[in-house]
Amino acid sequence: MAPSAGTSIDTGGTLGRGDSFPLDNYKKGARVWLRDPEKVWIGAHLTEDVTFASKTIKLLTQDGQAKEITVTGPESLPFLRNPEILVGRDDLTSLSYLHEPAVLYNLHYRFVEQKTIYTYCGIVLVAINPYEDCSHLYGQEMIQVYRGVGKQVRGLDPHVYAVAEEAIFDMSEYGKNQSIIVSGESGAGKTVSAKFAMRYFAAVGSARSSSSLTGIEDRVLASNPIMEAIGNAKTIRNDNSSRFGKFIQINFTERFAIAGAEMKTYLLEKSRVVFQAQNERNYHVFYQMCAAKDDAMLKNLHLEDAVNYFYTGQGGHGRIAGVDDRADFAETTKAFGLLGINADQQKDIFRVLAGLLQLGNISFASGGDEIAVVEASMQQGIKRLCSDLYEIDSTALDTWLTVREIRAAGDTLRKPLNTSEAIASRDALAKVLYSAVFAWIVHKVNESLVEKAPTPSPRKQHVDPMSTATPATPTTSSKGNRFIGVLDIYGFETFDINSFEQFCINYANEKLQQQFNQHVFKLEQEEYEREEIAWVRIDFYDNQPCIDLIEDKLGLIDLLDEQCRMGRGTDVDWLNQLRSSVALKTKPHFELPKIQEPAFIVKHFAADVTYRVDGFLDKNKDTVSEQLLEVIKKSKFPFLREILGVEEQTATNGTGYSAVRVTNDSGPQKKQNKKTVSCQFRDSLRDLMMILGSTRPHYVRCIKPNDQKASFTFDPKRAIQQLRACGVLETVRISAAGYPSRWLYDDFGKRYRVLYPEGKAMWRDQPKKFAEKACAKWIDDHSKFALGKSKIFFRTGQVAQLERLRSETLAKSALVIQKIWRGYVARQRYLKIRASIRTIQAVGRAFLAYRRMKYIQMHRAAVCLQRRVRGWLARVKYVRARKTVLALQSLYRANLVRRRVQKLRYEQKAIIIQKYCRGWLVRRSQIEYKRKVIKVQSCVRRWLAKRRLRELKVEARSVGHLQKLNSGLENKIISLQLKLDQASLDNGKLVDQCADVEKLRVEVAHMTTLKGEMTSLKDKHDELEQEVERLATECDIKDAHLTEAQTKLEQMNIQLEQLTAQHEREMAALQAAVDGGRSAALQLSAAKDKLESQLENESRKREHAEQRVSLLSEQLMSNANLLAGSPGLSRVGSMRGSRSPIPLDLNQGTLGDKDELLLTIRQQRLITELTARNEHLAREREQLRSLMEANSQLADMERKTSLRLFEAQRVQELEVAYAKLKSELERLVEEKTSKGADKMNIQSLVDRTLEENDRLDISSESFGLWICGFLAGTAFWLFAKFSVA
């Protein structure tokens, strides 16, 4: 962040560097700015003119040093300084030359020379910490100066009260929630600025309410000293640094008086309770208690000086210059009383805090095997802590401070702790208790900040803060329609060693910086582009990638939580996971140190910060021993149990500042919140961003001028770092180049329509044109405003001018409106009186007519009602009866349908059961029959084989047979012996015999080859056996299918016979019906002839009757009408007077023909159906025949397969016999060699050969020839062997 040394001109990245200035301004004597390694920027003036041909520029600094810089282009020219008349302006955007050195020098001049700490920067208020008492700037007189000014507040000097007044005006005028975001580094004055903003709200709210400044406004202010005491501490950079973040939401009523407030806190730094660096302090409340140890409220606690306690003495003597801890303690207790925390509750709070100090003094010594034990000198302190303060079991506390319990598989084991583990256990308990006290106090503060029912003011009652009386609890509360939020959160931090706290703090600042960017930068530029305003786009730093690195999926927080969920995860494991993460390697804002160390680097918007991973997991888990917490929960001290309950409830709600986990080192955790500290903090930040996004923000950027805390001392290096980091320089550029104020045309027309009355309804019908006319009329410089597509834009100060003109115009118009209105009211009063008299007359005259008319209407209405009611009753009765009948019919019909369906289902299921049962019976009988046949065949074949075997054995043992064989063998043996003797005598034949031996060896090799082929045949034989088994299984299945098909065929034949018989019966019935129809037609023809003869007779009678009627017509003329209308005297209905019999006979004849035709059609249709069914049965018969042929082919295949298997088995048996015979021959050769030819047992070889021959039962001629050849080869082999021997 520090500027680089040297005098070279920055070519990019500096505010104003892109601006171009005419060379006419760079004349001799012109004042410019140059970079300086110490002052960042230093003033100088030119010693010669600058022209287009100039390559270098010669300057003389204000220190009297001559310098020369190289010019490479227009951007390398030095920055021009503003005229003296513009130096010290209260708004940086009003400077003529707007660049980084001008902004820095203007702030320096106002702060050092004018002793002014506030400066406007467009919409941002820059506040520089003076490190001096400036209480005169925040008195009631100053509040009166800014109160009620509204938009004219920009005409006054910059002040935090001006920002507060602008927020109140915007809320009341536009009805939108407001927020004041106070940001800056630690020690820049954020807490003080937020405090004064709240003081202004309280003062203005009390003036608008009926009560004085002792109600809700007083309680809002009283919360500040309490939160500073328990949440602020001294750090290296700040004596009153907030170690937690808070967002105070101040609610307002409809009259814009304060209705209440609510405080939300974020990430309390609990580690400060147990550890402070050198020259730092613990929280202020501990030192306040030690300084006021002789106070009546603290006498029974036996407190000592702060340096005597370990938790308050680590940083040194612990005193702050200019701070009276005793007076601050009195102010804290007074604030407790104003917020409704009575004296007893205050004593309980200080009692718990005193116990923490006593707990920190407990030290441990190493016993045997490095086991930690409480030092003997600490027993008195433990006794005081347990009996006087916390009222807990001292033995249990002593035990569980040095021992932890491990549970595994239902067993419990106690493991002693070493010294470091015991200290960590003690510190964890202290942090839990302090966070519990903090949570309880915040809860009580929020309860008190809700508007109470009207009660006497504490000041009017003169309530003593030390009194034990309990203030009245609130009974009712109301919440305002609008609110103003004040955000006071920790600033960006970077130390030599940065840990988990700095990680969360800087993460929060990244989110706030993003919100600032979106409001000031992104929204500003997008607005101009959307409205098509002439605008030069400015690039700015977007920190969204850095936020994604932290909070996105698989970001740092997710990986940290994943490691925390692991049972034995460590900080080093988490760091290794970060190093091996592929997603993090692609993040430009994440780096690892070049030197191997347990740390990682995050490139934040303000600086690159190195975080050491030591303690990240423990702080994120925030665990405490379950047994220690149980000891505290069993305390007889009610307040201690109460605050632990509030702490657990607060952690469950996820407020973000504390999330205690109770853990047992045994493995599964019994009580554990789902979210870790980082997750809760991330969620709370998201909620905060949503709240800020729903408001109109106002920004206060606090600047820390130096690190030495010297009053009104300005360090340019430190200042420029903060100005660059917080975005003030970018705000200056955008505000000066753009239009900070903007209005929708409709809103502008509604508010400023009084400024251009010539347009009449133009503000409603043509709002854009109206805005152009109105601004052209009242704003002389047309460059001060710009017309967009939907909005009109103004430069700084123009809206205030329009507001002033509007107020003046409205004041003049009000007088005219009052004059016209009063005349109008008088005239309307006269007209109203006259109209009232006429109305009374008309009403009186109309009343009598109205009463008569009303009676008639009532009579007609009664008749109409009776008619309607009676009709409605009749319809209701009919509808009810109809519904009843329909319901009965539907139930009856449904019952019939259900019965019919049930019967059909029953019959269908019975048929299916019968089908499967009959099929199973047939298959079982067929399988049993087949098994019996096979068994009989096996028995018969076995009996035949045994008989043949006995015959062969008898023949083999007969004497003649044996003699025949013996004689043949003796002759062979004698001939062989002779040959052998001759061979032994004849040495010349050895060569031939050797050749024979070689041939024999070839034969043996050939036999070996045959043996390999036989082995392959054996493998094929095994495969064929498996194939046979599979085919046998398929045959069984096919047999079952065939049996079932035969059964179906039989059933279908039976059905076909039944259908044929039924068809013959139906044909006979149809033929009988045809015969009956023909006979009926003959009868009808005879009846027709008879009726025709009757018709002729009736016609003759009718003619005769008509003649008689004509004769009597004159006599009956007088009664013609009667005779014509009387049915009793007319002949119209007589059979004799009509011709209806003729068409009747014709219709009957036609009806008979139709019936015969329909009968013939039915017969033809039945015949067609029977023919189709017969064809279907024929097709099924063909299918069954083809299936039977396939089965027969399969059976032939099976028989062939069986024969092949039998032959293979025979070949295998022959191989076995050959092997045995070969072994016997080898045995004979060995006997001859060892014992001589006389001792050879040839008889046993012959007998075994005959037996083997009988067993094989060779009947094939070819196979016998093969055996003969085999015996001959064997004999030759024996001869060769014997010859060699």
TrEMBL record:
Q: Which Pfam families match?
A: IQ (PF00612), Myosin_head (PF00063)
Q: What keywords were assigned to this record?
A: Actin-binding, ATP-binding, Coiled coil, Membrane, Motor protein, Myosin, Nucleotide-binding, Transmembrane, Transmembrane helix
| Stretches the record annotates as Disordered | 452-477
Instruction: Spell out where the chain crosses the membrane.
Output: 1263-1280
Stretches assigned to coiled coil = 966-1115, 1167-1231
Q: Any idea where the Myosin motor domain is?
A: 87-807
PROSITE patterns, per database record: IQ, MYOSIN_MOTOR
- Give me the residues that bind ATP, please: G184, E185, S186, G187, A188, G189, K190, T191
* Source taxon at top rank: Eukaryota
Give the GO molecular function terms.
Answer: actin filament binding; ATP binding; microfilament motor activity
Q: Does the keyword Transmembrane apply?
A: yes
Q: Which GO terms describe its cellular component?
A: cytoplasm; membrane; myosin complex
Give GO BP annotations, semicolon-separated. actin filament organization
Q: Which InterPro entries match?
A: IQ_motif_EF-hand-BS, Kinesin_motor_dom_sf, Myosin_head_motor_dom-like, MYSc_Myo5, P-loop_NTPase
Comp. bias (Low complexity): 467-477
Mind telling me which Gene3D superfamilies this protein's record contains?
1.10.10.820, 1.20.5.190, 1.20.58.530, 3.30.70.1590, Kinesin motor domain, Myosin VI head, motor domain, U50 subdomain
Keyword DNA-binding appears in the UniProt entry: no
Region annotation (Actin-binding) ranges: 685-707
**Which family is this sequence assigned to?**
Belongs to the TRAFAC class myosin-kinesin ATPase superfamily. Myosin family.
Name of the featured protein? Myosin motor domain-containing protein
Q: Which organism is it from?
A: Plectus sambesii
